[in-house]
C-alpha cells in the first residue's frame, strides 16, 4: 500500500496502521494510531509532531491528518485546562502560605502580648497570685500631719527641712508631737479661740464653688488649723497607684525566703503634691532596698497641690505566702 493511499484511508484504518514519529533528529516507532492518540492526550506529542506511515511515505503533521484532527483539538483543550488548574493551584498555595505567615505573625504577637500581660499582672495587678505571694491592702486613713522626729524625716536632696505642722510666730514649740487632734468645729459662726499669749489666729477660709475640700479645726491650745486637702482625691490616687508597690514587696520576698509580715506605711504629702516624708513602721524594714523602692514609686504618685496643713496617709500592706 502506498503512502498516498495510506493518508486517504478511512479513519479506522489510519488508527490501526503503524506509524513513525519524529522528536528532534530522532525517528521513533513504529506505533499504532491509537498509541499516537494516547501520547497526544499525555502531552508527549502535539499537533505539530510529524508522523509517517511505515514505508517510503513522507512525514506530515498530526494536525493535518483527518484521523487525528479531532484528537489533536481535544488534547490541546485538555492541556489548556490542566495548565489553568496548575496555575490556580499555584495561586491558592501562595495564598495559603501568605495566610499561614500572617497567622504566624498574629499568633506570635498575641503570644508576646499574653506574656507581657502575665508578666505585668504578676507584678502590678491586685487580686492575682504573684508567685504564690499574697498581698492585702488596708483602707487608707488620712489625717493632718504631725511633727516628726528628725531621724524619721525624709528630705529631698537640695531642699530645706520640711516641717509638717507650721505654727505662726509666738507659738510655743514644746507641744508634744503625739498630742491628739481636736474635732473640727462645724458651727457656721464659730471662731478660733485666742491664745493666752495673744497670738493672732488664722481666719476660717473655705473654697468657693465646687465640692468643698478644706476645713478649719482648732487644736487643744486654741490655734486654728487650715486644712485644704481633698481626702476623696487623695483616696482615689492611693487606690489607683497602690498596686505599683507590689513589685517592691515581690522583690523583698525574693530577698527574704518565706517573707510574711504586716508592713504599715505612713507618708506625708507636701503642698506641691509630692510625697515629702515616708515611714515604714517595721523594725527590719525602716531602711534598705524595700524602703528605697517604696519611696521611689510613691514619689511618682500624682497628688494635687494644695495649701494649708499637710496630709498624712496611713496605709498597711499584709504580705504572706499562699
From TrEMBL:
It comes from the Bacteria. It comes from Archangium gephyra. The chain crosses the membrane at residues 97-118. The keyword Transmembrane applies. Residues 176-194 have a biased composition (Basic and acidic residues). This is Outer membrane biosynthesis protein TonB. Residues 153-226 are annotated as: Disordered. Keywords: Membrane, Transmembrane, Transmembrane helix.
